[in-house]
Amino acid sequence: MRYLTDGRIVVTALVLLLLFFSGLLYLYANAGPKTGTNKIVGQLKAKQLKILRKLDSEVIWEELDESDPIRYRDTIRTEEGSEAVLLFTDGDNTAEIRMDERSMILVEDTDKISFVSGSLSATGSGSGNLQINSGDTRISLGSSDVKISKDENKGINLEVKNGEAKVASSSGESTVGKNQSADLKDGKIEVRALNLETISPVDKTYIPLTTETLPVKFDWKTATGVKTFRLEIAKDSGFRTGLKKMNSGGTNASVSLGNGSYYWRLAGKNPQTGKEEYSSSKNFKLVSWNKPRLTSPTHKEIFAYTESPPPIRFQWNTADSQTKYKLEVSQDQNFKQIVYNTDSSSGFAKWETKSEGQFYARLRMYSDKQGFSELNSETISFTLRKSEQAEPPKLLKPLQGEEIGIRIFKIGSFFSWSANKDFKSYSLDIASDSDFKNIVFSKSTNSNYMKPDLEWREGTYFWKIRAALNSEGEISSSTGKFTLKPLGALRLSFPKDGSELGHPADGKLLFKWDRPDPTGTYKLEVSKDPNFGSKVFETSVRSGQSSVPLPGPGDFYWKVTLLTPEGEVLTSSPSSGFKTSDSAPFVSPVYPRDRDKVDLDEKGSLSFYWEIEGKSEAYILELLELDQKTLKTIFKKEIRGESYDYRELYRLREGKYQWRLSARYRDSSGQLRTTLPLTRDFEIIMSATFKAPEVLTPKEFYVE
Fold first, then answer.
1. Superkingdom of the source (predicted)?
2. Residue 399 belongs to what domain range?
3. Which entry of 36, 515, 532, 620 is 20 to 30 Å from 394 by CA?
4. What pTM, to 2 d.p., does this model score?
5. CA distances from 591 to 479, 606, 608, 621, 701 (A)
């Protein structure tokens, strides 16, 4: 029985079992769509983007297409940016469920749905009742039109647009009628009237965005006795994420917003009951709509080959998941001799070329939505050229002139270069001098990457690739250069040391720091004391930020540590302290983002905007220019709104800048205070030159 305890035999057996079951899982997942045997209760009427379904008897999610049947016990899920319309029919009774993005339901029957997360709209017709369950809460609909959403705290909000809905929970039953809403949480039901009526933007509107921000106009109808309306805009249907509030005595307001999905509603005090009422919420999206740009190939790029032409891979950045693109390749600049065209929404296309020559490519962007005009990219040219000899390999990593922390480089010192089927092997040479007289490493390989087995030291290194041709001889690449230096400091970005912030409405604060190693693992620690004896949060992430749930307003301390894959400490940041309070507003600078590059070509202003949680009386915005390691103030203003457009662009030049933002507010005693400024560093790029305006009025006047 010794073979049962032999480590080599046991490990081999486990590996074989793992490969066997992995193969079975792969064959099962790729065996085609799963039809299921449960009763069909409806169908997918319409969809946008990807809609996923998991059968009751399966563990794998599959994508649904329009008109696909929906079965009893199916779980339906929408991803970010996607929407689904489900139709359930039972005789003369029909029910339609419209699922918003990031939502999930479990289909119990033609008249019974389990609502798991997200938000949805339900419309019922006929004499039957549609029942929507969530935990111990049951919502029964007849011939009615309702909207249901669930927030992060598992509370449910119900809005009835037409008809009525009966709500039953552990606290009893209630009827919610037309133009009423109900909040359901912890078994309690609170019903409110919806006498406030919104006009625009209408629900499910898409608005094109041609700049960083756009002033969006909100309109609503007057309400008897309501003197002041409060406009609320948020990123989620529960009105908790990125909440903006604005009071208005009229029937419209304008708010500058950036790219993204938003929900909006009105609030006002009923003069008869003295209670606050809300309108129904509506959703709209701002979609970036600027000229598309091909990122690959680059303009005037040359593709050389010796035998057969290589395929050309086109890439571009997509604006929105529902935006459509058409790629066109032509032999002439006027695109009258098109040799290739394709439709793609993925941002990628591949053209199998057949001959050499000069070609032109452009991208056409369009949308089926109203108000979105067709846009064309700049035309790029590229050349396919047959050569007698192969082009030398291009060095990819390390980058030319790159400075790398030596402790990081020792862990992941991979070298890579371009491959070509004209080469049968490659030799990597590394030297301490540009003439390669002092070679410290040299090795051959059939791959286009290698991790040298070398004891690295601080200093400057040079490297090149010698490629052996399939026929005879070899060809060398250009020389690359990189420098190994001590690991850079780990700098904490937000919240700043000594800052005072408003406590976030949802209790979650986003911590940010610089990463000296982009691929490293960082341990974030948050504590109530500077010695980190009473930690409130600890996590390890591979990014430069993490959202932390804070227990409540108070003093906090935090620090970040860079770890090796084995868990050893490479470097740590100093600890930083900050304070949150209920009276101070929570200000979050949105744009320009930290380390952004802002191109001011063809722009009339430099836009700043931010988000606020809590109440503030004004904001202090300051723009500074980095001039020879010192910051020089360009302007400093007190602003009432939550955005500002700086139009004196002739005063700016290419370079590094910083903007600072603080809020003025009144504390619990009524005293006026100012929060510590939050900073964001960014860079200005100018393709055009801005000049000071020229005064045309004569300098001298002659009066008779």
1. Bacteria
2. 395-485
3. 515
4. 0.53
5. 40, 10, 5, 12, 47
